[in-house]
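Final report, section 2: Outcomes. Of the targets proposed, NUDIX hydrolase is the one most frequently requested by collaborating groups, and we therefore present its record in full.
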Amino acid sequence: MNGIPLPGALGVRAREILAGQIEPVPARDAATVVLLRPNGPVPADPPSGAAGVEVYMLRRAASMAFAAGAYVFPGGSVDPRDADQDVAWAGPPPEIWGRVFGADATTARGLVCAAVRETFEESGVLLAGPSPETVVADTTGDDWEADREGLIERRLSLAEFLHKRALVLRADLLRPWAHWITPDVEHKRFDTRFFVAAMPPGQRTRDVGGEADEVAWLRPAQAIERAENGEILLMPPTFRTLTELSQYDDVGAVLACEREIVTFKPHAAEVDGEMWLVIPDEDYRLP
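The predicted structure is given below as tokens.
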């Protein structure tokens, strides 16, 4: 069985949920973006699992209530204002994203906008430009930092931020990748859609602090190896995403991949008197 033991209070909570004694916490819509950049030329005889891409990852601060200490991709919950119709938009419309992710158009708009907003908040990378064909070349400087902090503190909505700078959200720079729902046993739950995107030319990530205490660019196979050696912590959705990305030799191949988005949700089960969190495998999908 592919799973994780649920000891102590989590095991008790899992039993109570399975028995119908308590209700799970509702899952909040969220978006996560895997930023990609080239890792240089792949050797003629690459080691097993080598890939010509690197991914941007953050280590969540130990003080965080959810996934503390885990290495994750930029992302977070959808803000109600993310679905604002005033956001200037380029690329596939919300209705298309909704069909891809099994959501209504309003939810899909919020997911795409949250993906762009959270990526800027947590990495300084902005998937937007002065026109539908361009992208911002540089997001460094005190004025950009003030706007980023305004978004984090919710003093500024994404629509207000883009309008202020006369920018268009570049939904066409995103690609859908996966859909995971936090298991019922967790006290904080998210209904998360995963996106991938290439680093825009000229932009660069920076250590922006806040929820993360460390950032790094890692090859997918390198991150997996470090996790298997106990050096870093990866949540199951992150581990699976990295495993999938490790099969690609360049960023273009990742972006060109035609993905069938299915919904995965780990679930609690009792095995030989002990509670386990069962991790979905290739054959496990929500109907």
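Confidence is low (pLDDT under 50) at residues 46-51, 283-287.
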